[in-house]
Amino acid sequence: MSNVVVFGNQKGGVGKSTLSVLYAHWLADVHRQAVCVIDLDTQANTSKTLRRFDSGANAVELFGEEPSLGGIPDGSEQGIALVAGGKRLADIELARPEAVIPAFRKNLAGVARRFDTVVIDTPPALGLRMSAALIAATAVVCPIELEEYSIDGVTDMLKTIFGVRQRYNPRLQLAGIVLNRFNPHSVRQKAAMQQLVDHYREFVIPARISTRSAIPEALASGLPVWDLPKSSAREASAELKALFGLLQQRMDSAGVGASMTGVKA
């Protein structure tokens, strides 16, 4: 099966949707892959940004026994296909886990066979949708903003990943913790970064995404940042492409996620 890469954190506002979208663009533009993006968030920010790639399929259907997913292309052409999120996804949290999680895993496997990579944007809380995504995934990327409460949030997320890997999905890899919206002039952020590295050095990707106006500007236009003709976009593009390259190296390495010492479920 193709790589199934989840962007997840049990805290909102850390850049999951932004990085999901840009990673999908990077795979499609730079590596000429066929990429399916699945939006499991009721806010559907990923879906709004990628609306021109909408396949017509809805993510909520992946949790049903007989999904209507005929609109999803077979992946024979390079590019992005979106399976959109929406408010109906909230109903999944009220469903029976023994029904919706196996259904999602089965349906996702069918989708993944059509593409080189599937990218999943998850909701900012642990529930059935995030659990289903982790149980079905091959790798998870954990974005974080460098604030003290964000450090606490990533600790909870790592415990969740480790627990899923131990109990349900032994092939799940932690691709890495991504430092997002970094301000090199902030003493507080530098202290938080040191705290994070002290605790989780082996998981932190040695690349940072700075706070740059070009990133939200590009996404508002429905474009990857490297298609925006301005100098700040070139700087942001260099950071993002370096980050995604490091993530991909870790995911392509057989030993990624093999050791999670220091993180207890």
Q: What does this 3D model show about the protein?
A:
This protein has 265 residues and is of the alpha/beta class. It has a single domain, classed as P-loop containing nucleotide triphosphate hydrolases (Rossmann fold, 3-Layer(aba) Sandwich). An 8-stranded parallel sheet has the order 3-4-2-5-1-6-7-8, sandwiched between helices. Helix 3 crosses helix 4. The chain starts with a strand and ends in a 13-residue tail after the last helix.
Tell me what portion of residues adopts beta-strand conformation: 15-25%
Number of separate strands = 8
Round the Cα radius of gyration to an integer and report it. Answer: 17 Å
> What fold name stands as the CATH topology?
Rossmann fold
Mean pLDDT: 87
Number of domains: 1
List SSEs in N-to-C order. EHEHEEHEHEHEHEHH
Provide the CATH architecture.
3-Layer(aba) Sandwich
Tally of individual helices? 8
Q: Give the proportion of residues in helices.
A: 40-55%
How many angstroms does the end-to-end distance come to? 27 Å
The helix-and-strand class reads alpha/beta
